[in-house]
Design a protein that fits this description.
- Helix 1 (8-14) packs antiparallel against helix 14 (337-353) and helix 3 packs across helix 4.
- The protein is of the alpha/beta class.
- Helix 2 links the parallel strand 3 (47-50) and strand 4 (73-77).
- It is built from 14 helices and 9 strands.
- A 9-stranded mixed sheet has the order 1-2-4-3-5-6-7-8-9, with helices on both faces.
- Helices cover 45% and strands 14% of the residues.
């Protein structure tokens, strides 16, 4: 970066009590790349987060800072999603798993904790099945129910689940699907529907935590009980009030479960027991924010989307950092509102010059 150019990400890092700074890098894979958004200093165990079909790593914006308390976190934007160039030729869950493995190797991660959501659970399960050195796996809303493997059934269940999602999650979904595009979405969707996650689960040696939201119609209770029985070791939890995107709307509860699982602190009552947990944190919806923080969130999200569309990682890095601070619970990141606004205001000119 030129010395005379604004550095919004650097400014955020220096802001009082602002300990969420996002770094964005690219790892070349298979004729394209994976975008890696990272927070936290290097440590012994890293968390690797893989989002679902068409979704950007931003879906993990509330979960990642909580996991960061226990190690570095790397959230991945896979080829074809969030403005990342698509694979050429045939696409498959296995090909996405190849890309994730390559990222793990390129980053030099030793026994990372693999976390997947929705289609991301298929990808990380495939990775864990190939790599016996992976000792911990977290599956959030694993798909697809083996008794409902059609596009029509999945679409109907997904729409039922969205009725219980907060507005912030719906906004994420809409913008992410627009960036993905219908052509690529429709190309990957049949691969997701057909992938037999339960067959690959039998080859996983990792200790596995499976989490669902109470209102997740795509991931019914009987399905995760059947799936858990295939894994050599699995613990089940259901988050009260959650839906398919439980890792965003109930991020605190999911993060606590993941950290406790890695620390071997989750009691195992057998796969037939589905223990329910509650999230007592502040709501993730926009209604919880004051007018200034809500404006910051909307502005940073808009700038982030422009950065994705223009492949401008510098703008992305700054916007993601500003957005992460805006979304953080007030007692977690007491950053001065003036510092937050200045970050976004300084990013905007950069975005206008990009491209």
């Amino acid at each position: 970066m030129d010395q005379d150019k604004p550095d919004p990400a650097g400014r955020l890092a220096q802001a009082e009590d602002a300990d969420v700074t996002v770094e964005v890098d690219r790892v070349a894979v298979d004729g394209t790349y994976v975008r890696v958004s990272s927070i936290g200093a290097p440590g012994d165990r890293a968390f690797v987060l893989v989002a679902g079909l068409g979704i950007a790593a931003t879906y993990y914006e509330r979960l990642a800072p909580h996991l960061n308390e226990n190690g570095p976190v790397h959230a991945l934007d896979l080829p074809g999603f969030a403005g990342v160039p698509r694979f050429r030729g045939k696409v498959s869950i296995e090909r996405y798993a190849d890309a994730v493995e390559h990222v793990i190797d390129e980053l030099g991660l030793v026994d990372p904790v693999l976390v997947g959501h929705s289609m991301g659970t298929q990808v990380v399960t495939e990775v864990a099945a190939r790599r016996p050195d992976v000792s911990d796996l977290v599956l959030i809303s694993p798909v697809v129910d083996s008794r409902a493997r059609t596009i029509r059934q999945s679409a109907f269940r997904f729409l039922r689940s969205t009725l219980h999602e907060p507005a912030a999650v719906r906004w994420h979904g809409i913008t992410a699907y627009v960036l993905c595009g219908w052509h690529w979405f429709s190309k990957v969707l049949p691969r997701m529907i057909a992938f037999p996650i339960e067959e690959r689960a039998a080859h996983v040696q990792a200790r596995t935590l499976i989490v669902r939201g109470e209102h997740d119609a795509m991931v019914p209770r009987d399905w995760i009980r059947r799936l858990a029985r295939v894994f050599p070791y699995a613990v089940l939890r259901e988050v009260v009030g959650g839906a398919h995107s439980v890792m965003h709307a109930q991020a605190d509860a999911v993060a606590q479960l993941a950290v406790a699982h890695v620390a071997h602190r989750l009691p195992d009552r057998g796969v037939s027991s589905l223990q329910r947990v509650e999230d007592h944190s502040t709501s993730s919806d926009l209604a919880r924010l004051g007018p200034r923080d809500a404006l910051l969130l909307v502005k940073s999200r808009f700038i982030e989307l422009l950065g994705m569309a223009r492949n401008d990682d510098e703008t992305l890095e700054a916007a993601k950092s500003a957005h992460a601070v805006a979304m953080a619970d007030g007692d977690g990141l007491p950053v001065d509102p003036a510092d937050r606004r200045a970050v976004v205001d300084e990013v905007a000119p950069e975005t206008r010059r990009a491209g």
